[in-house]
User: Fold this.
Amino acid sequence: MGFIKEKKMRKTFATRDVVLLLFVIWLGLIFFAALSQASSWLTSHHFEMNFFSHVKFFTLRVWLPWIVLTPIVLYLAMLFPIKPNNWLKALLLHAFFLLLLSLSSGLLISLHYHFFADMAPGMETYQPWQHIGHFLFGDNLFLFNTIIYTILVTNINIKNFSQIAKQKELIASQLNHQLIESQLQTLKMQINPHFLFNTLNVISVLVMKSEKEQATEMINRLSSFFRNTLDDKTQQWIPLQKELHHVEQYLGIEQVRFGDKISIKKNYDDEAMLTLVPAMLLQPIIENAMQHGLEEKEGQGELTISCTIENEWLIINITDDGAGCDFEGRYFKEGVGLTNVKSRLQQLYGTQYEFSINNNDLGGVTVLMKLSINIGEQK
Assistant:
C-alpha cells in the first residue's frame, strides 16, 4: 500500500509541475501582449486598444493547442534526452518534431479558421491548407511554438543533467570508498606472516650480526612504507613519481631480504614523472611479481619497471623473469589486488586504457598498462 501511495503522489506532483509550467507560459504570452500594446501606444499616432483581442488570439491560437501537445513533447523529451554523447542527433530529432507538431497544429487552426471563423476579405478563395503559412509565419505562431517547445524540452533535460551530476557524484564517492578499501587491503596483505615475519627476521639477523645501521635502515623503511600506505587515504590521483617512491620503499625492503638474488632495473622517462595516476596502482602488481614470480624462482631473478610517454599515452611495463603463471590452467585464480587494479582502471579510464598480463619469453610475467594522460590531467 505504501508503494502504491508513493507512486500516486509522484504522478500528482508531476501533473502539478506540468500544469504550473503551462500556466507560467500563458502568463508569459499575456505579458508579451501587454508589452506589444505598450509599444504600440508609445510609437503609434493612431493607437487603438485591442489588448483583449491579443489575449484571445494568444490563448486560443497559441496556448490552447499546447494543452494537447505538451504531453507529447514531454514524452519525446524523455524518449530522446539531450546528452553529451548524442546532443547533435537529439537536437536534429527535436527540430524535426517541432516542425511536425507546428505543421499539425497550424493545419488544425487553418481548418478551424477556414470553416468556422470570419475570414478576412480576399481570403475566401484560399484552400484550407493555404492558411498554414499565414498563421505560422505571418502571425509568428512558429516562433511561439519554438519558444514553448524549447522551454518544455529544457525543463526535462535540466532534470536529466541533474540526475547525471548526482550519478557522477555517487560514482566518485564509490571510487573513493574503493580506494580506501584498496589501501587497507594492501596494508593487510603486507602485514601478514609472510611479509612481516620475513622482514622482522631479516632485522633480527642484522641485529645479531651487529649490523645496526642496516637494521635501523630496514626499520625506517618498514615504518615509512606503512606510513605512506595509510597517508592520503582519500586522494584518488597522485603523480607517478610519488607512486613509484612508495613502490621503491617496498622493493628496498625486499631487496635487503633477498640480497643479490634479485636485481631491479628501472627505466623512467622524466616526462612521465608528473603524470597523474590512480593511487596504489603499481603496488599490487609489483607484489605479485615478487611473491609469485621471483620468490619462487631458483637462482637469480630480475624485475624491470619501465614508465615512458608515447604521444598522449603513459606506458607502464612491469616484467619479471620468475616462475611464470599458468593463466589458462583450471586452478588459476586472480588475486584480490589484481582484480582491484583492473576494476579501478575500468571505472576511472573507461575505454581510454589498455591492460594485459601474459607470460614472456624470459619465463616470467609481463604486465603492460597503457593509460591516457588526458584522463589524469582532467582531475
About this structure: DSSP finds twelve helices and seven strands in the chain. The CA atoms of residues 131 and 301 lie 88 Å apart. Strands lie at 237-239, 262-268, 276-278, 301-310, 313-320, 353-359, 365-372.
